[in-house]
Protein: Methionine import ATP-binding protein MetN
Organism: Mobilicoccus caccae
Amino acid sequence: MITLDSVTKVYADRGKHVTAVDGVSLTVDSGEIFGILGRSGAGKTTLLRCLNLLERPTSGTITVDGVELVSMSRRDLRTARQRIGTVFQHFNLMSSRTAAENIEFPLEVTGVGRAERRQRVTELLELVGLSDRGGNYPSELSGGQKQRVGIARALAGRPSVLLSDEATSALDPATTEQILDLFKQINEATGVTVVLITHEAEVVRRICDSAALMESGRFVEQGPLLQLVGDPDSRLAEILLPTGDHDLSIPGRHLTLAFADERAIEPSLSRLSRDLGVEVSILGGTLERVAGHQVGRLRVVYQPGQASDDAVIGYLRERGVTVTAA
Ligand SMILES: Nc1ncnc2c1ncn2[C@@H]1O[C@H](COP(=O)(O)OP(=O)(O)OP(=O)(O)O)[C@@H](O)[C@H]1O
């Protein structure tokens, strides 16, 4: 489990103070995949660098598996850091070493014996689907294969936490999907907790259990994904499952609806028309699989007069649809 309590990082930049991370508190449960979504400059990289203690926060505490990291001595920190593996956007592989030797490197540094290292590298190459590529140099590998090596190297020391710093941002969409699925597969197979930062909604949609939206150094929303997408007012939900731009001048009552699982396919709207005699038009929305569940968000408009607003909203809520009036 990872806990951040009021973590702030202030940089001094040419006489000015830049607050890159501003009082972020966060709990990530063991075995969870947690995504931090934000635009460029939101403070994601700084937060991730605080998490693996490459940066010391200006204030606040960071606890990983019950151990508080910020107050640790440099020496203790070196050991504690072995519990945390990091995967980088640009892979950061050593070009003069083969894939197997890159994966082996952190084990050499921590003094693991040769036979054990070789055994572990073989296991890791298999885990990331590169058993036949161990002898290749990075220049002989595709971007996706390089990132597989990066992931294997991050896992070499059996960390309890895997951090991903925009790990798929340099990859094409198809390779991105494969690498995200690999993160999920590794998370399920090993139980490693994953924290990823990204500016891509697809990354969060595809594999995260929980997520936060970061802006100007702060978390403006966070929670389990399924809970967030069920909240019609959630900004993160609107990014993940957009309902589109709407013309509020269209006459009628405008509603935003959110629903999950069997309710996503249950024809609640057609039943509403049949049972209450209300005609409903869909203005926009998205139906998607999120966090392994079928979820949907829709923007609809109906004509008042045929049934009361309370009757319409009550009818939908009784069927498990979350409703807000626009
Ligand atoms: N070493 C530094 N010194 C001064 N300011 C910094 C430093 N590192 C980051 N910043 C500033 O902190 C803010 C957050 O930057 P950060 O790189 O963490 O954001 P980000 O969300 O990761 O963006 P990107 O995806 O573009 O890297 C920015 O205003 C940035 O200019």
